[in-house]
Structure formats: C-alpha cells, structure tokens
Protein: Olfactory receptor
Organism: Hymenochirus boettgeri
Amino acid sequence: MANTSIYKSLVFSGLSDLPSLQLPLFLVFLLVYLMTLTGNLLIVLLICTDSHLQTPMYFFLGTLACLDMGYSSVTIPRMLFDFHTQNMFLSLQACITQIFFFVLLAMSEISLLAVMSYDRYVAICHPLHYTQIMHWKACVLLVLGVLMISVVCSLVHVLLLLKLTFCTINTLQGFFCDLPQLLLVSCSDTFINVLLILILALLVGGGIFTLTFCPYIIILNTIMKMQSKAMRSKAFSTCSSHLTVVFIFYGTGLFSYFHPNAKNHSAVDKVASVFYAALTPLVNPLVYSFRNTEMKISFKRALCRLMCWNNEDTKIQCL
C-alpha cells in the first residue's frame, strides 16, 4: 500500500506565539543570517585571494566557512519566511528534505573539526614532515571523505523516515525540522529510527569525537615542552580557538539530541536549537578566524588594497 504520509502537513510551534514578537524576532534573525553569510564569505574570499593563507590549515578553515553558510541557510531562511508570513505549515516532504541537508551539513562539520584536529596535530607535533603529510591531494581527499560519510549517514536517516506514518497535522516544537522532534510526532513505531541514532552516535559520532579530542592530549604535551614562549603562545592560541568551536558545537548538539525527558523541556530545547542551528555558524568565524593573527593581517592587507586601488601614489605601499 502506498505511503500516504507524504501528503500530511506539519506545523511549527515557532519560537514564540506572541504576535508582537514576530517582527523583532524576524529582524534579529535576519541580522544574524546576514552577519553569518558576510563573516564566512569574507573568510573564503581572503583565503582564495591571499597567497599567505593558501595552506592546508586555511583550506580546511575555508571549507568550514562554506559548511557554515550552508548550515545556516538550511534553517534560517525558512524561519524568516515563517516570521514574515505567519505561515507555520510545512509539507512532510519539505521537512524530510530539510532534515537531509541539516544532518548532512552537521555531520560534515563535526567530521571536518576532527580533520582540523589532525591537521593541528601534524603541524605542532611533526612540523618537519607537515608538508609531506598534509599535501594538497591529501587535504582534498580528506574533505571528500568527510562529505561521503555525511551523505551516507544522512541518506540512511531519510530512508527510514520515509517508512514512517504521520496520521494528522502534527506540531513540531521548534522553528525547523529536527530529527528527534519529527520522530516524536510520528504515529508509527520509531524504535528502529531511535536505535539508528544511538548506533550512529556511538560508532560514527564516537569515532569522530575520539579523533577530534585524542590528538589534543599529544598536542598539549608537545606545547608544554616547547622552549620558546612565543611558539607556545601561538600554538595554544590556534588550539584554543579550535577547541572553543568544538565544545560549542558538541555541547549544544548533544544536549538537544540526547538529554532525558525531551518532551518536557520544549522551551529549553528551543534555546539550544537556536544556538546550534543559528548562532554557531555566526560564532565560528568570530572565535576561530578573527582571533587568528594571520587572518587579521590578511584582512588589513585586503582593506589597504581596496582603499589604495585607485590611488597610484600609495598603491606600491599597499602591496
């Protein structure tokens, strides 16, 4: 028998049901979205145009910026549309499509953070062999591997979602289609889906988590043995920025997906989902990139070139 669930509709509860808050929320998240796109796009442009930043570390950073732009674009534009039109309805097909891309980009991001940990491990612990290990072919293959793993995991979730039945118009406690919330409103048995989340979290997520944090045990030990205070400060600055992004992403994501009694914490869930779905892509360039000395210097060079482009007397100084 054909699965009639694809014709059912879902409705978001939204962040607030107060009409007076819809316009302020629209303006706030529009600003967040524009700042996210601007910050991450600026990072990509600087890395592509500045030869000083065309290294494996900044290649991964540029990839992270691209993922952040896609990650925020999966959720925020739809939320802005809902704020503007007050139309909280969404077809099940559209919801599952949003889940596919959200899981794909989220999985890609945590996998890339693990790759960046390995990159820092090689750069700090094996600096003499860094260029031989982290050559461009290896960097591209690592990113392609990250994307392939993420696509497979996302497809598995979506294929199992398509087998579920949704009997009536269901309300999702949030502002976008999140996998746990969609499972809660299904009138089918979701045991296999929940089991899959746990298995992938333990196997794939646990493996990525280990690959992200284990290198830092060796990295921190190596940093403490460095004789130069300047070298220790530079290495620690790079690692602390990366770890800050990792803790923010893992902390909010794990809380939203795995805390107990999810049905009784809808308000808390909304706050956490706003943070990891909307604010994390904005925080990443601020924490990880604009604290970076080389990125700041590159940004100043770009501004200087822009201001002096039509001034022949100062063009040489700018370059």
Remarks:
- The chain has eleven helices and three strands.
- Residues 7-318 form a domain with the Rhopdopsin 7-helix transmembrane proteins fold (CATH 1.20.1070.10).
- Residues 127 and 190 are 49 Å apart (CA to CA).
